[in-house]
Design a protein that fits this description.
The chain is mainly alpha-helical. It has one domain. It has a three-stranded mixed β-sheet. The longest helix is centred in the C-terminal third of the chain and has 42 residues. The two termini are 18 Å apart. Keywords: Membrane, Transmembrane, Transmembrane helix.
Length: 235
């Protein structure tokens, strides 16, 4: 039913807006926290790359390469190629923030080496989750074009749910990597006292970006269920 000047107001857009706000807040939080602790130099004087090398060797991992990758906070562990990539602001930096990020990525390498199940499950979900998020809306739209096909709409929602599942499985993987990082940095004597507390704040802020992504995905899925669940009931 049209409102105002002939436009239809969809109240479910509020869910999308909430998701956007949460994501923007989390992104701003990690940037400001990282910026703050990137100015705090560690007493060890080690760079992110050196710390990563020490952590990997201390855990008996010798077949993971450490590479320098362009960009800011583009750090990641590639389990397929056994490569740990550190960004410009981490690789050569001696800051508390950089060492925390490097240790976090090493946490993923340790997970991989120890066959950590949530990481294996997440890696297996990557191709189906990517396909699901890309194909969901086109299939739903086709369902609407072809006489409100419930089958296609249901299939689209199911495919979208795979992306949501991926976001949820990512949470324990990321939290565990951060816990491993903090424990390793302390046990190896790389960081001390206030340095550890600063690193915890950096990694906690980073973890919130994954929580925000999961929340936004859940809200989007809820919107789909509200929009098309009601349609199916009317049919």
């Amino acid at each position: 039913m049209p409102y105002g000047y002939g436009y239809y107001f969809d109240p479910t857009y509020v869910l999308v807006l909430i998701g956007v706000i949460i994501s923007l807040w989390a992104s701003a939080k990690v940037k400001t926290t990282y910026s703050k602790y990137s100015r705090v130099r560690s007493m060890s004087g080690l760079t992110g790359a050196q710390v990563a090398d020490q952590i990997l060797r201390a855990n008996g991992i010798y077949d993971v390469r450490i590479e320098h990758v362009s960009g800011e906070l583009t750090d990641h562990y590639d389990p397929k190629n056994r490569v740990l990539r550190l960004s410009n602001v981490v690789y050569n930096s001696t800051s508390v923030a950089a060492l925390g990020v490097a240790a976090h990525e090493c946490g993923h390498a340790v997970q991989d080496d120890k066959d950590y199940f949530p990481l294996r499950f997440r890696n297996a979900l990557v191709p189906v989750a990517n396909f699901g998020t890309q194909a969901a809306w086109p299939i739903i739209i086709l369902g609407l074009i072809f006489g409100s096909s419930n089958f296609l709409i249901n299939l689209g929602i199911l495919l979208f749910s795979l992306g949501v599942l991926f976001q949820l499985v990512t949470l324990p993987v990321e939290f565990d990597a951060s816990h491993r990082a903090i424990r390793i940095l302390g046990n190896m004597g790389i960081l001390y006292g206030d340095e550890i507390r600063g690193t915890k704040k950096v990694l906690s802020a980073a973890a919130m970006t994954y929580v925000a992504a999961a929340a936004a995905s859940i809200l989007s899925l809820l919107r789909l269920l509200i929009l098309f669940g009601g349609r199916r009931n009317r049919d």
